[in-house]
């Protein structure tokens, strides 16, 4: 990397007194002031906020800053040791794993959340959609609400002849990634745009910034449809559709249905799993998951102890806080596995 | 010729001409331009004031002093840490960029002028004004944050990089407008070059330099993207310039205004109002001070 | 300007102070080159993966699809230029008009409040402009998120810059020249054309260049209202589009490896574009200066 001479001189002058990066804690004595920095997924930001509030109330000497910024940013910050932990909606790609400066790390799952399909259609209180129809709508192959394909999912419901306005994300998003991955899994023949945080949406779609941006477009545009996480959909007062799951049932995004999506899924040894397109009979199919990450060997004593304690909190008492922010807890079996994983973390 | 009677002044008045009409048209066009810019200005200021004033007065003065609520969907003040953060970051950036920028402009106009080096620097300065703020943020992340972690100082560096070319560019313009006679008079009195610049040229150009610098500072105070990479996030006060994450009003505005929750949106508009008031007060003070120190034109 | 005093070389401590000052000034100016050089190096290093894979196709390809690892910067290059052009088309006439009004037409009691009002416009944070754009221009006036909406917002944002600098430049027009024109019977507009504008030309160009730089580099406001469409190269101003800073800002948070490299390569592309645009602008200005010099 380039060595800036001027910056180097300046930094030596100015930083020497306060020392280099504060990774080392202290002796780890109880009551010592510790500040943890974190960044990552905005999908679970709401949960992080309430968890941090509750945890720091019990441990007033610990302060935690969750800077969000996106899963990609979280993964990069974590790899670069700029933050003490990070949260992500997707695991590292193989090419990026080599860049982890802190060595071995653990994924700790902590939330399950529903991605709703919200719509704005006067007179239609209950809408049902199957994944194939969903894929074709978002690819702009179905462009009117009274299309026979939509009618087939909604027998007996009068659908107006309005044009469909598709609302999607302008910013890269873990929500987009999970939504498109779901379409890939559930409608492989119909969905052509692949899966990712940013995909090649057709030009005649509307883009909003953040979940709230999409929600705002749907709310203010008659005939609009968009994917929004449950929390923002409820806050904006939007209606959402019941989606046909892999078992053939149309399920609404309730918290029970979200939890059901987490039951009986295959979990890897490193605790990576996917709750999308669950085949449980009453599971909501577009259920997304998220993890937080910490290093197996914590670099500092005080900070390491704090990180470990917080992670333990998140998968035990913290799970009770999920409902108020419209998330679902991970299955008990997964909580136990996660706790066991965290116990393995070594603090110097 | 008719017999001279009482003086007929009507005949002496200039005839309505196309030239006069053109001048009036030009004046009308100028007024139109003023109206054109006044409308969005007033509309934006109106939006900020109407949305933000309620939030600020509801919890006055806690809004300016209380810590930022950790749970963003909860109602309540305040923006204290963000105000401090903005002052630290923008203040730091100004202290770095303005002196360096003015010095650089002095070199360009007073010493370098048309030399190859000066022309290269001049060109690159204009190029530098086009570097997006997010690229500056990435740059500071890769060179500073990676080594020293989050800190207000990193943010100040990023903003200083954004401000520097604007200060250089505008200052050089102003230096160019100082008449040569002023300089020559000073030299004739035996003043050295550096002394002339510091005591004669700079004061003469001061109002313009301050204008340009204020523009740069105002932009810096409102920048979001570079700070996200350099200062991290915080909800509590952090007066330490060199260590630990911090926050700023611009970052808070962006994060909260794009939220679905009214409580967060309210705080965003309150923060926007606060930032505008803060920046306006700084501008006001700066202009008042320069009026005292500038050479009369 | 004499580097030495007429009559001989400086001596003594004054000479050292003088030389030291010159040295500091050179150092400050060199800082620009140093920082830009570092930015270029760091960015080029990080952009290498995607450029190695795609070569120059990166700059000429239209398709941007991260899941397929296909990255083409052309639509974003176009979008940046198009929105900057719209912004300048709106801002330059308005800024000139306002600056002329404040310096030549406005009565004394109006001048100061107007200057402060313009300052107010300059201190509105860019993110607030973006939000206002979404709420008012996009929604209320139905302009949607498009090249035009972004161009208008950018135009409003760069107006204070151009106006403020133009105003300062016009203020320094020597009163003697203005009075001479008026004494010869010129109307106000003719006086402006004869005295104010020729004197201010250089400064005005500089002001516009600063405004252009800001228009091309504005990130957040553009990201919120430009529409974030992919692959759009069209002159339809109501179409949604994209610009390089907007793409970088929007997609950075979730990008990894190759995608990130592509975003940094976009920054490099913008860098090169700014250089080219500035070269062209400088050439145009030089030619017009030469022509006017030739005339006189």
Description:
The complex is a heterotrimer of chains A (348), B (297) and C (296). Chain A contains 12 helices and 12 strands. Chain A is an alpha/beta fold and 348 residues long. Mean pLDDT of chain A is 87; it is low at 1-29. Chain B is mostly helical and 297 residues long. Chain B has helices at 18-58, 62-65, 80-112, 116-129, 133-148, 152-176, 180-188, 193-221, 225-230, 249-257, 262-293. In chain B, helix 3 packs parallel to helix 6. The N and C termini of chain B lie far apart (52 Å). Chain C has 296 residues and is mainly α. Chain C starts with 11 loop residues before the first helix and ends with a helix. Chain C has one domain (60-295): MetI-like fold (Orthogonal Bundle). The model of chain C is unreliable at 1-5 (pLDDT under 50). Chains in contact: A-B, A-C, B-C. Chains B and C meet through helix 1, helix 3, helix 4, helix 5 and helix 6 of B and helix 1, helix 3, helix 4, helix 5 and helix 6 of C.
Number of strands of chain B: 0
CATH topology heading of chain B: MetI-like fold
Name the CATH architecture of the largest domain in chain A: 3-Layer(aba) Sandwich
Derived structural class of chain B: mainly alpha
Radius of gyration of chain A in whole Å, from Cα? 22 Å
The residue ranges of chain A in which pLDDT falls below 50 over 5 or more consecutive positions are 1-29
Per DSSP, the total helix count of chain A is 12
In terms of quaternary structure, what is this? heterotrimer
Looking at the structure, what is the overall shape of chain B? globular
By CATH, the topology of the largest domain in chain A is: D-Maltodextrin-Binding Protein, domain 2
- Counting DSSP E segments of at least 2 residues, the number of strands of chain A comes to 12
Q: What's the overall average pLDDT of chain B, rounded? A: 86
Q: In total, how many domains does the architecture of chain A comprise? A: 2
Specify the helix fraction band of chain A: 25-40%
Q: DSSP helix count of chain B?
A: 11
Total separate domains of chain B: 1
The separation of the N and C termini of chain A measures 30 Å
Separation, N- and C-terminal Cα atoms of chain B: 52 Å
CATH domain class name of the largest domain in chain A = Alpha Beta
- What percentage of residues of chain B falls in helices of 4 or more residues? over 70%
Shape of chain A: elongated
